[in-house]
Amino acid sequence: MKEQGRPVLVIGGGPAGLQAAKDIAEFGEQVVLVERRKELGGAPIRWSYHTLAPDFRPTEEVMGPLVEFCEKNDNVTVMKGCVVEECNGRPGEFRVRIKDESAKEFTEMVVSSIIVATGFEHFDARVDPRYGYGRLPNVIGINELEVMLKQRRVVGHDGRPPKRVAFIFCVGSRDRSTNPWCCTVCCGVSIKQGIEIKQLLPDTQVYMIYMDIRTMGLWEKMYWDSMEKYGINFIRGRVGEVYFTGERLLVKGEDTLVRGPFEVLFDMVVLAVGIEPGPGTKQAANVLKLSLNEYGFLAPRLPNVHFDSGKEGIFLAGACVAPMSVEEALSEGSAAAMQAVKFRRNIVKKVPV
Amino acid sequence: MTGKEQEKGKKKDKEIQTEGEKGKFIIERRYVDDSRIIEPEKLELGGVDMSGRWGTLVLPRTLEDFDTEIYEDVKDLPRGGNIGKCWQCGNCTAVCPVAHEHPEFNPRYLIHIVKMGYTSEIKRHHKAVYLCSGCGLCSAACPKGVDPQGVMIAMSIAFKAHEGELKEL
Amino acid sequence: MLEKDGTVQLGNDEKLELTKDDAKLLEILSSQRRAKLAFGTTEDYLKMLERMKELEKKGEIIVHHVTEEYDPVGVRTLSGRVKRIPTRETWQHKSCGQCGHIPGYISAFYWIMSELGIPYVDDTNQTSCTAWNYYGSGTSNPVALSAVFLRNMHVAYEKNAYPLIHCGTSYGDYKECRYLVIMNRDIRERVRAILKKVGRELVVPEELVHYSEWLHVMRHEVAARRKHDVSNVKVAVHAACHTYKLMAEDYTYDENILGGRKPAPTSSVALALGAQLLDYSNWYDCCGFGFRHILTEREISRSFAYFRKIRPIVRETHADVLITHDTGCVTTLDKSQVVPLAQGYKETIPVISDSQFAALAMGAHPFIVCQLQWHIADWKPLLAKMGIDWKAAYEEYRSYLDKVKGGMKPAFIRSPPRRLEPRGGAKAFRVDEPVMT
Amino acid sequence: MSVPLSAYYQTPTANILPHEYLEILVLFLLVFAVLASYFRIRSWGVPFTPLSVLSTVMTSRDREREGEAIDDVGLVTRAKVATRSTIHDIFLLRRAGAWCEERIHTIGRGLVLWGFVLLSLVTLMGFLIDPAGTPNSLFLPLRLSGDIFQGILAMGACILLLRRLSRQNLRISTDINTWALQSVLFVMGVSGVIADFSLLMNLVLQFQVAYLVNVASIIIFFIYAPFSELTFLIWKGSLLMQETLSTNSAGGK
């Protein structure tokens, strides 16, 4: 196989992966896009996010064009339901073995460089039993609320819209007994959802129970609007226990500004579940012999240069490196694409044909 | 637990409430405010006298619900409209010359308990609002344009209007 | 969200079946989490048990094993470890407050044991665990407490009976003391010196067992002898802090009872007897006893007991009876109702011990054995609901009293202290519940 | 310069606005102001506290306060308490002044308050002594003291305005009503002083202009006051006095 023919392998069909594939293809290079699941689009499509923070753009509007491009474009070879199983060889000519999980077939190919964009998983709130997720009705995660918002139908298990909703922040984040890191987006996403609930059900009271509000950069506007335009209330404190009385959810917590415990009834409790590295990331790390950091995310060579995996010819992008928003993931995909193309062109120069 | 039963309980509390300095004998007395202590002057059961200390009860201080009635009024009163913007940064209290003299006057806190509708807390603190000297420093310091001075004006009116409910238990 | 068909909707296209395995997973996770919050961690606790074995090998301490002669039954503790609960030839470590405040508590328990024909040792040679002192005034110290603990344990050992601790506080206190004695050489040596002076050796029981755990493993035998139908009785349970919050890893849990999220004993007894067990929101809260509070701040103690326990329980569950398994809890929850009722509050509920409830169901006399006449809250509706004719019973009781006045010997339920000889031919070790590993 | 006292005897206001009319107008405005503030305060859903203070002082029968009966407190006691609290809280600025973070702010407030009160007193006296404004022995001293008090008022208002103007953060955050009220007071005082002094110097034209401005500002003040912060200040002041009154009376039993 001639050097020029060697494609770039992109692992992961989420925002970062798609963006990377698109950019490389537009450079006129060959790309192979491997996605473990049966559909492209990654988390936003898989969990069917309704809109994306901070500007409430519908997910399809953001992801649709990317997916469509990769499906249609000739330079992009999309392999769905596949995982990279084996990788050896040297930078410039990695020999990879890709397994089709359903058909149990194997494809072998030589690729010039690899972009890892294996994304993240939502924290399983059952691991933190104090919120009763999975045990109590009307205790849901932000990812499930997105589904409801998409269907424009936010209701409890009894089919009635909730009169009073509580968002509990930092579930499975910033907590030694679960995950010590901050997921960076859940404040913004919860506030976005709070606003959407208010738009959908104006009479519903929405309360945000938070440790700190971390709406970074321009996301702050959502926070201000939620308070000033939509009258969403913010309680600084933590929740110790959620108890189902048979009709409503009794939320026991402390309002640290009052220095006093509260026990208030809510109709629905939404857990702002954190972000954690998924099995895909682990598997990719094993196959490509990449190093993971203490939290199980892929560790870049330098903490502030995400795309540099520290292994020549392998580049990182998106939420497999650290928790991040879709907007960040897209630009990281782009950056990695640039690196991959640069790398390939250099090789072509080095090896005359 | 039905609301009616709760109401009954609350009424009872009121009836048995007595004036004067209560619960002197409670060791950690300073952590318990008067409104929570029920010390009956006259209480007897089967010929046994249980007045005073022997019949004393201390009501719990748990915040049980949000009652936004006063909050809504404050929003409609002159210069109270911006209360909703407050995010509890505490700049107002930091610059307030009164707060430095009188710990019981804390604009940030007053705004919070009214916003959240913690009636029990409002009952304890509403008298403090009249300590505001209207110097306007808070409104100058506020980063969110809440105009705490104006909010204090609106609050002192709203509290007077709800005097009935706000009387000490 | 939790769907009606018991599945959890995770995404637009993904559903997660909440199977028994999931429930178990949940339970394990929550257990681990709770264990983290307890005295030390599960790891420390298991380490301590290892150390105990080592010390025994070295001959530094004698370990009082739960041998087959005690006919032990295995239960799963919070740490996931199997704990062996002795069922016979137990040395009754009584509770100070119990005999004083709730005489029916212990007499009911002895009555049950004699009904089941189980031999036990009711020894007069027992001291208080001094935890009153420890909690009340803080004048005690680890060495003194450990010495008292080991002294009692040695008495049981030389009687060749296995200590069964009635008092939740002693139980928790002893668990912590055992941890100290085993993990801290200094304390161990100083205690050894003290014990030498009173001519005793350093004997550490392999398992520290609370009587509620005994009742838990014997619940099926108890239920088998049930005389009164309690299926229409609504029961709320309060677990004693000192039994399951001190060294939390070492108390009995069971995935089939309350989903393994709360201690199994007492709830299990109620269920085994066929009563309706009800949950309530302040389950984990203290009864208000809190040692220092009951001693120095009655008002707080009393108010907490009523406003944070009794009132919520009555309002949420409308239960007929509140069952607990420790001295302090029964006392506080029962006696604290006096003042509120006098002040006109309406909510009230009878409070009795698990042993009293079991004994009543087994047809024990409500006054001669269970001695309900000492209880404050109105127990008449409960007895009526259990189908016990309390008026007739009370008449019996009165005539019994008259006879006693007339010189009749009152009915004591106790075994004379005796030295037991080791016996062979004990039953094979059986495990009461499917044990999770 | 020599002041021709005759200037005062031929009241030159007459040909602009007859003295009597002016007094009637002011009287009318006063009534309007009181009524307007009454209705405004009632519209907040709270009692009109100045009235309740009066009734508190006047009633010398038992009252129910917070479920606890207060024994009969004589009119004298109450009056005493009222005066004490008036002097302490209002004239000695215990509430209004004590917690101003700057001395100058307190002074400003003090000057406005004292100036305004004394001015009204003097005007009232003048009116009572001689509604027609015809010359008599007290005419000149009253007139001059009136000028002084107007000056004090103007100075106070000027201080308050300058304080707010000089600090950018204050300037931005100050409510439009505050600006309006303080400027009206300022204009009122200044125009009044100018009017009289230009009259003393026989500068009739300046006098007439200033005088018109003065009258206009007075009219505006009375019409505007009920809708300004002043209403709240009066309401709050009376409320606090009433509080003191009841507690002190209760304590004094």
Strands of the biggest beta sheet of chain C: in what spatial order?
A: 7-6-8-10
Profile the largest sheet of chain C: 4 strands, parallel
Total number of helices of chain B: 9
Oligomer: heterotetramer
CATH architecture of the largest domain in chain C: 3-Layer(aba) Sandwich
Class of secondary structure makeup of chain C: alpha/beta
Kindly provide the name of the CATH class of the largest domain in chain C.
Answer: Alpha Beta
Shape of chain C: globular
- Largest interface by Cβ-Cβ < 8 Å: B-D, 29 and 32 residues
Count up the domains of chain B.
2
Q: Could you give the count of β-strands of chain B?
A: 4
Computed Rg of chain C: 22 Å
Number of helices of chain C: 19
Structure explained in plain terms:
The mean pLDDT of chain A is 92. By secondary structure, chain A is α/β, with parallel strands linked by helices. Chain A starts with 7 loop residues before the first strand and ends with a helix. Chain A has helices at 15-26, 42-46, 59-72, 142-150, 186-200, 220-228, 279-288, 326-350, and strands spanning 8-11, 31-35, 51-52, 57-58, 76-80, 82-90, 93-100, 105-111, 113-116, 120-122, 139-141, 164-171, 205-210, 233-236, 239-244, 249-255, 260-266, 268-273, 275-277, 314-316. Chain A is built from eight helices and 20 strands. Residues 12-19 of chain B have low confidence and may be disordered. With 169 residues, chain B is mainly α. In chain B, a hairpin with a 2-residue loop joins strand 2 and strand 3. The longest helix of chain B is centred in the first third of the chain and has 14 residues, at 3-16. Chain C folds into two domains: 46-211, Glutathione S-transferase Yfyf (Class Pi), Chain A, domain 2 (Up-down Bundle); 227-405, Rossmann fold (3-Layer(aba) Sandwich). Chain C is 46% helix and 11% strand. Chain C has helices at residues 20-37, 42-58, 96-101, 103-115, 131-136, 142-158, 168-183, 185-197, 211-217, 219-224, 241-244, 267-272, 292-296, 298-317, 327-335, 338-343, 354-361, 380-385, 390-405, and strands at 7-9, 15-17, 62-64, 73-76, 82-85, 90-93, 120-121, 162-165, 203-205, 209-210, 234-238, 276-278, 321-324, 351-353, 430-431. The B-D interface holds B 19, 73, 77-79, 97-98, 101, 130-131, 133-137, 139-142, 145, 147, 150, 153, 156-157, 160-161, 167-168 and D 44-47, 66-68, 95-101, 105, 164, 167, 169-170, 172-175, 178, 229, 232-233, 235-236, 239-240, 243.
